[in-house]
Amino acid sequence: MKREIIITSDGSSTIHLPDWNEQYHSKHGAIQEAYHVFIKHGLYHFLETVLISEPSEEHPKATILEIGFGTGLNAFITLLESEKINKKIDYTGVEGYPVLMDEVKQLNYSSELQTDKSELFFHKIHSIPWEEKNEITGQFTLTKQKKFFSEIDDESKYHIIYFDAFGARVQPELWTEAVFEKMYNALKPGGILVTYSAKGSVRRAMLSVGFAVEKLPGPPGKREMLRAQK
Questions:
Q1: Are residues 78 and 38 in contact, defined by beta-carbon separation less than 8 angstroms?
Q2: Structural domains in the chain (count)
């Protein structure tokens, strides 16, 4: 399938699939979408409302599963935030079709998110081997898994799921009750799933497997998004 690097409205790049008229990130702003959906309403919401109440450790680490590792943008931004707030994060990214290194080199996230060592971190995220846990920084470990979402069989392992699959318009099979049941099982009690989608069929699929679901204001270009809690 043909793939093109394009610049989104906030100046950050993404990969466009012209045959599907679909992008890896919002054309209204890749970085803006990642911060709004996954960091603000995912990571920070969880840290401020749920993880702080866990009595098991004084400073417990957050465990995150990303559905659709793709360009690595969500992992990269989460790494940068973990450094900023001094919070340990154990991150797992699942991807059936990894992005090629030639494409990675054309993405401008390091220059757009100019922080200390940002280019080094972004390169390391993509250069580490798959199927192994790797320490990227003292705060952030990453495991990249090359497999399809239907193969996920984790049980009560994650605090947060970033559900960033291609949209239901082009891949409806990724937004079914069967998939969200796997997501529900993979979360720890009280864990949350966040996604840019707000489709009624997606919300109903989440509710049917036991999630409590709320609609939230969406990122630029989208009126709403969803957050679900186990």
A1: yes
A2: 1
Say how far apart CA 230 and CA 61 lie, in whole Å: 19
Q: Is 117 domain-assigned?
A: yes
For residue 95, the domain's CATH number is 3.40.50.150
Question: Is 11 part of any domain?
Answer: no
Residue 2, both tokens: 């043909």
Q: Does the pLDDT of residue 52 top 60, yes or no?
A: no
**Single pTM value for the model:** 0.95
The answer to whether residue 138 sits within a structural domain is: yes
Range of the domain at 144: 30-229
pLDDT digits (tens, 9 = 90+) for 164-188: 999 999 999 999 999 999 999 999 9
Residue 23 lies in a domain: no
